Amino acid sequence: MIAYECGQGPVRALAFSPDGKLLASSAGDGALQIWEGGGLKWEQMLSQRCHALGFNAAGTILALGCEDGITRFWDAETGKLLETYKSLQYPVTGLAFVDSDKKILLTAGDPERLYEESKGVTLWNYPSREGKAIVTYSLEVARTFSASPNGQRFAWTTRHNKLITARLSKQDQFHFSLKDPARCLRITNQGTLAAGCSWKISIYSCEEHRFKFSLEGHKGLVSDISFSPDEQFLLSGSWDQTAKLWDLSSGKEVNNFQWKQGQISRVAIAPDGMRYVCGFATGTVLIWDAE
């Protein structure tokens, strides 16, 4: 097991590079770190909190979605700031490179306020020559967001507890109604969708447009979730200070992890499925082997 301090305040975002060699983390004080092989590769201190992290498919560029509405692009190898543009009027809540890194999906909103025209889910060219979105999927505030690893599917939730799914290649959307707000969201290449709502995790099928089942066992709010690469397992983190591993074929809990670091704010599974990561409200990050 490897433990390190990301910064002051809760770990707000975690992201592996596609090859699994790099791990990016951001904390509540604006600290941004890139780790490689258990050692710190580079670190930056930002004046704005980062809500979203994402690598391009090549693993050479790290994108940051920040509270000031600016999307920042960094060289993943050197830590050099490559590009900064004011892409959105409101805080960036999610992002994902798509279309062979030629485009980027961005979501925006403020969970504390409701803007009538916030352009919550948009598609941009990368780099953005136009200085504006080329497609707008929704004008509603996007509270949570997820894109599939291949970038073909994506989903988001709104302030009004709507869960919306879409495909990059099609303009059709499908809506689910949530009983409770979703704090976290993940979608797979095959269209399995997981939403952490209150103390449970709801599983949906995008292909069949239906709710499938719930994963129940946490005794606190589910703060984050992550699918295994084979889409057979789900890792969840909670304010109850535990992380749980779920078998999606049976809907059963197969492992429970607990430490003394406190509430868990973020979780991630490496692209090879061999490492798990937890980020805590204290700023601590733990990495351990799946075996």
UniProtKB/TrEMBL annotation:
<protein>
    <recommendedName>
        <fullName>Anaphase-promoting complex subunit 4-like WD40 domain-containing protein</fullName>
    </recommendedName>
</protein>
<keyword id="KW-0853">WD repeat</keyword>
<feature type="repeat" description="WD">
    <location>
        <begin position="52"/>
        <end position="84"/>
    </location>
</feature>
<dbReference type="InterPro" id="IPR019775">
    <property type="entry name" value="WD40_repeat_CS"/>
</dbReference>
<dbReference type="InterPro" id="IPR001680">
    <property type="entry name" value="WD40_rpt"/>
</dbReference>
<dbReference type="InterPro" id="IPR015943">
    <property type="entry name" value="WD40/YVTN_repeat-like_dom_sf"/>
</dbReference>
<feature type="domain" description="Anaphase-promoting complex subunit 4-like WD40">
    <location>
        <begin position="43"/>
        <end position="97"/>
    </location>
</feature>
<dbReference type="InterPro" id="IPR036322">
    <property type="entry name" value="WD40_repeat_dom_sf"/>
</dbReference>
<dbReference type="Pfam" id="PF12894">
    <property type="entry name" value="ANAPC4_WD40"/>
</dbReference>
<feature type="repeat" description="WD">
    <location>
        <begin position="257"/>
        <end position="291"/>
    </location>
</feature>
<keyword id="KW-0677">Repeat</keyword>
<dbReference type="Pfam" id="PF00400">
    <property type="entry name" value="WD40"/>
</dbReference>
<feature type="repeat" description="WD">
    <location>
        <begin position="4"/>
        <end position="36"/>
    </location>
</feature>
<dbReference type="InterPro" id="IPR024977">
    <property type="entry name" value="Apc4-like_WD40_dom"/>
</dbReference>
<feature type="repeat" description="WD">
    <location>
        <begin position="215"/>
        <end position="256"/>
    </location>
</feature>
